[in-house]
Structure formats: C-alpha cells, structure tokens
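Researcher: Here's the sequence for the chain we discussed earlier.
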Amino acid sequence: MRGGKAAFLAALVFIAILALLQSPPRYLTLPAGASPLNPGWDGSSELVRLMEEKGIDVFIVHNWSEVPSEVLNGRDVLFVFISPETPFTPKENGEIGYLIAEAVRRGARNISFLIADEGTQLKQTIMAELFCARVNGADLDPLNPYPFVFIRVPGGGTYGIVLDHASFLDVFGKKPQTAQVWDFVCQPTGYYGDKVVSLYNTFVMNLSGYPVRFKAMIFSDGSIFINQILRLKDVPEYRELASDVLDYLAGEGWVALVDTAHYKPLTPEEAVQRAGLQPGTIFGDAAQVALTLHPSMWLPVLLSYYYDIEAEVITLMAGSFIVYALFVAGLATIFGSVLGKVSSIGRRAPDRPAPPPEERLIAVDTYLRRAVKERLRLGKEDVVALYTVMRDVIRSIFGVDVSDPRAPDVISASTGVPRDAVARVIEDVVRHYRKAVGRSFRPIVLSWNRRARRLIMEAETLLNAMGTGLAREEGVEYLIRK
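Model: Thanks. This is the structure I predict for it:
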C-alpha cells in the first residue's frame, strides 16, 4: 500500500517537472549593485530599513517619470542616490526638477539629498547644478585603495571610517544661479590630506513664492552605505554615521525617493558567475542544473540567502582566511549531503518531512496570529502590523515595494490572482495603515476591530497565494520565503 502511494506521488512529481520544462521560463533579473532592492552584501536595503525605523516612508523609484504625485502630498522629501551605475538622462533631470516643484506645490518646505558616489554618473544632473560640489571620479589615493578618514555630521558625531576605492569632491562654493537664495552654507566635513571626501550644503531658495530649505550631504564613496558595512556588529561607526546623516537630512513623516533605476540588473546566469560558482565544482555544477530547471522559480531566493550567510560569516571571521576556508568546506559538505538525499529518492522517507529550507520565520510584535485563530479583539496597531507583513513579504518575494505601481502586475503574473483584486487589497491595507499612524484623515473607521478583521481576511487570501499567511501553526506571526 505504502509502495503504491509512493509510486503515485513520484508520478505526480514527474508530471509536474515535465510541465515546468515545457512552459516558457519567465524573464527575470535580479537587483544588483547598490540598489535598495538588493539584499546582498553590496545592496542598500539595510539603509532603507534604517530609514523606515526612523519613521521615513520609502518609495523605491524604478522610473522617475512614474512617481505618483500623491506620494508627495504635504510631506518634505529626501532624494537618495547611492553609487548609480548608469548615467542620468536629460529627461530624468527634468523629471526630478518637476518632482521638486510638485512637492513644494503640495506643501513641502524642506527638500534634502543624500548623494554617495565614487563615479561621475551624477555629474551632469540637476543635483550638480543645485549644490556646491561634484564627485571628481578619479581615485582618491591610487596607492591606497582603503584610506582612513574622519567624517563629521552636522549636529551629530565625528566618525573614523575606512573608505573603499573612493574618489574626492570638487568644491565650487557657489550658490545656485537660477533663483533667489539666502542662508547659503557650503562646508566640507571630511578630508583626506587636502582632498574633500564629504560635505554638507544648505540654503533657502525661493520657489514659486515659498521659502524652501534645501540640504545635501555629499560623499565621494558609496560603499559606506552598503549592506555589508551597515551590518558590521563589531564596527558600529558606519551605522551610527548613516543614522546621523538621516537625522540631519530628514525626519519622521518625510518621504524618501530612493533611486533603483540606475543599476544594471543581473540575469540568473550572471548572478551565478558573480557568486563565484564555477563549473567543475559542486556549487557550480548544481547551479548549472538549477539554471536548466527555470531559475525564475527559486534561484534568486537561494542566492539572496547565500549572500546573507556570506555577509554574516565575513563579519564573524574578521579577515581570517582559515575561518573562511572552514566555512566553504562546511557549506560544501552540507550541499553534498543534500545532493545525497536527492539521489536517494525512493528509499524510506521520514514520516514527518522537514519544512522547506527556503522558509524563514519572521516574528511580528503583535498577537495577530492568535487573533486570527482565537477571535481576539483587534486594534489599529494590528493594521500597522498587517501592513508590515504585506510590505516585507512583497518586497522579499517579488523585489518590488508595496507602493510601486508595478506591484499588482508583478504579483498577479506570479500568483494568478487577478490584477484588480491584488491592487484592491494592497490599496486598502495601505490606506488604513496611513489612517492608523495618523498620516491621513480618511477612511472613516468606526470600529478598528471589525475593520482589521476584514483587512486580514482579504489579505490572507493574497498572502496564501504567495505561499505564506497569518494563520500558520509554527507559533510565529508569519512565514516568509527568503
């Protein structure tokens, strides 16, 4: 009886694999470089997390012509550019200028910029016209790629940090020529010898009859804001520096427009090469098999998880080659063991299979799960928690932000849920989240308990289609595939 059941299940798996191989693979690229959507060592998703911890709303910009004006309503704006890899076009320059003017028209009186770049992609942009310094693009010190510098943050601390293949700033010290300007300050905050590596520039400009305060902090090295650096637990200076910079430039209730439009995306094949998984090795050969079996299904998840583990190990090993070698050997042993299990399909399997390795438990600090199952009373704090679940799940699985206009299309294409249904659930949760945190007067809510339950029921259907949910048995709030 048991053998017949096993044969039946094996036949189903075989049919599913045939169907997968017959279907066309979905086109997929992975966020790369210092993109805020890249969770790997060189991404800037940790900086985004730090902004959100400070109460700054984050909007990831895929296209500067598609930023909804509603994002700007009555809020001050922070623009963020970290080591862009492709140049800005004159059209994008005009779109950023339009967003500044539109933000002011809708009530913004503070506009800030965080610019950290060792290249020259920003040299011909509106930022270069507005502020008193530009990145030169040449090496700061050709003989020393890792110079040590001190950087001061206005109103914050002074930090001794190591730069990585940095450039330096050309300081002009002149005011913008296109409008009436006063209270102009252009002050270097970090030097290497006589070369400027960081600077702040602030002034008030008359825009459309309104006095608007502009602030910018410009750094000649983007690597000080990447994930690997901000996650260093034993060297907290980098995260503290980033925290002080955000405190100077923005505050709670602001919206940050973070650029992800100027990074060259990786195909799954390029991601494998970048991870150093060469053919002829156990990792490389396994990766080639994975690429053959449609990597859009799970390879991005695996590589993202691999980068997270590698970043943590690099932090722990503190430069020790021996520790790193032991890590690689241990990982290879584990991988070989997994392949051994795969090759032994047909032998007696355990009665209770282990959970899939790609699932990670993420706890939310509310009793949402118990409320779903035990019918406890809910409040607006649970709506905030639900929004957090939706945001993190969508960002981790699909690589888009919950506020991204493309999110409904991407989710619908992957889950089969109609686009209108996806958009309705997301919009409903976001609207009530803004109401719950006091950022919007509407919608009118007479009972948060009833409203939260309705939102949870609607969201649970969508979350289940994504392969997760709130009413799971593991004793935490939800599972997220990462």
